[in-house]
């Protein structure tokens, strides 16, 4: 019975993800249609006459859509273009353009040169795009046009004003979490700010890795430890004063973060401590036992590591 239901569950998860993505995009229609599968979303730099420009890309089973973050009331991403995958070819082009981690996409009507933030990100994108091209070639159904038919939406400027977002805005406090209609800390926005990507496989892994419990938190420049009830879900940590609280004090999206054990030079003379860091942002967390320490490391690595690599979260012996 479980095996029979698994396919239906995957289709429902995919449909739910398409509906979520529709809220983050403007200038698009016909996104959630039967047969279309979401594969990956994330940041790539698009090469143009003005140099490299940050763009958010959405890879589906039939097309690749690229957008930029616009100044809209709901912090949505404006769609600039769509490339059908049928007939597309892909070629690594670092030497040709002199841009690290770059590759060229050749479509039937246009070509794009894009660059990833690092070699591992490029590898994930190239692998998924090639897989999606194979899926599109095998499918006999034509690609449905995703772009809006509205004349104003189709005349989006490639160089439109972009909104700047800070790390503090992503790590929301209770007041920012309660703002109605604000979508500034969704997974799409976190990927934009952290210059990374996430796949449908990653989302599926995240659903299977959720955890809550007491942790002691310490900031990089503070002396004391603060006891909090912490909930991990959807690639984020949510901090509560106690397990009875209805609203979190703050949240911390983990995409792009690294999880390690503190070095001797950091003078954290405590047991069962792990460290989360992204650029200059550093947090220390202390658990109550070796078992809980290993469980927290397991689920956090499911959010901070790529699902394309073997993960500690695949272990089920705890």
TrEMBL record:
SMART domains hit by this protein: PH
Gene3D superfamilies: Pleckstrin-homology domain (PH domain)/Phosphotyrosine-binding domain (PTB)
Biased composition (Acidic residues): 160-170
Gene Ontology MF terms: guanyl-nucleotide exchange factor activity
Region of interest called Disordered, as start-end residue ranges on this chain: 140-180
Low complexity: compositionally biased ranges: 140-153
Database matches in Pfam families: PH
All residue ranges annotated as the PH domain in the record: 37-134, 208-305
Highest taxon of the lineage: Eukaryota
Protein name: PH domain-containing protein
Source organism per UniProt: Champsocephalus gunnari (Mackerel icefish)
């Amino acid at each position: 019975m479980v095996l029979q239901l698994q396919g239906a569950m995957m289709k429902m998860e995919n449909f739910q993800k398409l509906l979520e993505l529709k809220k983050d995009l403007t200038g698009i229609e016909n996104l959630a249609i039967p047969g279309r599968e979401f594969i990956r979303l994330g940041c790539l730099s698009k090469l143009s006459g003005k140099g490299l420009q940050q763009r958010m890309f959405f890879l589906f089973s039939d097309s690749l859509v690229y957008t930029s973050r616009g100044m809209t009331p709901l912090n949505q991403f404006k769609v600039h273009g769509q490339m059908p995958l049928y007939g597309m070819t892909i070629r690594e082009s670092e030497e040709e353009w002199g841009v690290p981690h770059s590759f060229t996409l050749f479509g039937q009507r246009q070509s794009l040169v894009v660059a990833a933030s690092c070699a591992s990100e490029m590898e994930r994108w190239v692998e998924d795009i090639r897989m999606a091209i194979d899926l599109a070639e095998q499918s006999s159904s034509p690609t449905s046009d995703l772009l809006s038919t509205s004349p104003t939406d189709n005349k989006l400027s490639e160089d439109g004003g972009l909104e700047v977002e800070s790390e503090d805005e992503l790590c929301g406090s209770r007041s920012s979490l309660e703002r109605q209609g604000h979508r500034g800390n969704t997974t799409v926005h976190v990927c934009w700010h952290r210059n990374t990507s996430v796949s449908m496989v990653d989302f599926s892994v995240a659903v299977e890795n959720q955890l809550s419990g007491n942790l002691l938190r310490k900031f990089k420049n503070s002396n004391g430890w603060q006891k909090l009830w912490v909930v991990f879900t959807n690639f984020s940590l949510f901090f509560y004063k106690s397990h009875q609280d209805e609203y979190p004090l703050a949240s911390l999206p983990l995409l792009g973060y690294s999880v390690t054990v503190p070095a001797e030079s950091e003078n954290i003379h405590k047991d069962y401590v792990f460290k989360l860091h992204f650029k200059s942002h550093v947090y220390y967390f202390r658990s109550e036992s070796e078992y809980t320490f290993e469980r927290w490391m397991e689920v956090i690595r499911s959010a901070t590591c790529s699902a394309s690599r073997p993960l500690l979260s695949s272990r089920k012996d705890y």
